[in-house]
Amino acid sequence: MSSRAFSPCFCVATQMLLDIKPKPSRVLPGVPGLTGAGVVIGGVSSLAGIGGGTLSVPFLGWCNTPLRLAIGTSAAIGFPIALAGTIGYLVNGLAARNLPDYSLGFIYLPALAGVALVSILTAPLGAKLAHTLPVPTLKRFFAVFLYLVAGRMIWGLM
Questions:
Q1: I want to staple 20 with a disulfide (CB 3.0 to 4.6 A). Which of 3, 15, 138, 144 is the partner?
Q2: How many whole angstroms separate alpha carbon 3 and alpha carbon 6?
Q3: How many whole angstroms separate alpha carbon 127 and alpha carbon 11?
Q4: Dihedral sign computed on CA atoms, order 41, 42, 46, 50
Q5: How far apart are CA 138 and CA 132, in angstroms?
Q6: For residue 150, which of 61, 50, 53 has the smallest C-alpha distance?
Q7: DSSP string, 58-103
Q8: Long-range contacts for 71-74 (Cβ within 8 Å, ≥24 apart)?
Q9: 103: β partners
Q10: What pLDDT is stored for residue 6 in this prediction?
């Protein structure tokens, strides 16, 4: 992975931390634009091993979508993105050899169960925080998260 993959994370995090706002006239693109953005966000997210929300929330914010709505939209689109990724890892890994026991393609079922359980248990807390925390605080938390993601990507290059 090149340094270009984590550069947008640093830029978006800094923009959120400094509260740099996009042009007021910027709005969500039409269906072709949203489709293109979705393909790029999904592709980069899967290659970088990060959730689509890491990039979809900043994209929606860049299009002047209110932060709470961007977070909610990201959560809603997370399931179909995860489902598509899961099917891809399953199909592409069916012929792979030397996978650990309890694998279905490139999906390690114990890890899947753990991630699903923790997600189910913590989703209500995330939704509550998104609705109760002030927007500037949400932006700061998300900016710190993006810095951590970018740092993890840099660490992976070493």
A1: 15
A2: 6
A3: 26
A4: positive
A5: 10
A6: 50
A7: HHHHHTT--HHHHHHHHHHHHHHHHHHHHHHHHHHHTT--SPPTTE
A8: 71/130, 71/138, 72/130
A9: 108
A10: 58
Closest C-alpha to 85, from 31, 126, 49: 49
The torsion defined by the Cα of 72, 147, 1 and 100, in degrees rounded to 10, comes to -70
- d(CA 107, CA 69) in angstroms, rounded, equals 31
The predicted-structure confidence for 74-96, as pLDDT tens digits, reads as follows 888 877 877 888 898 899 999 99
The dihedral built from the CA positions of residue 120, 108, 48 and 94, taken in this order, carries a sign that is negative
The string over 63-98, giving b where at least 16 C-beta atoms fall within 10 Å of a residue's C-beta and e elsewhere, is bebebeebbbebbebbeebeeebeeebeeeeeeeee
Cβ pair 16, 61 in contact under 8 A: yes
pTM of the full structure: 0.66
The token pair at 17 is 């931390």
> Measuring CA to CA, which residue among 113, 79, 109, 80 is closest to residue 93?
109
Q: Which two tokens stand for residue 24?
A: 């007021």
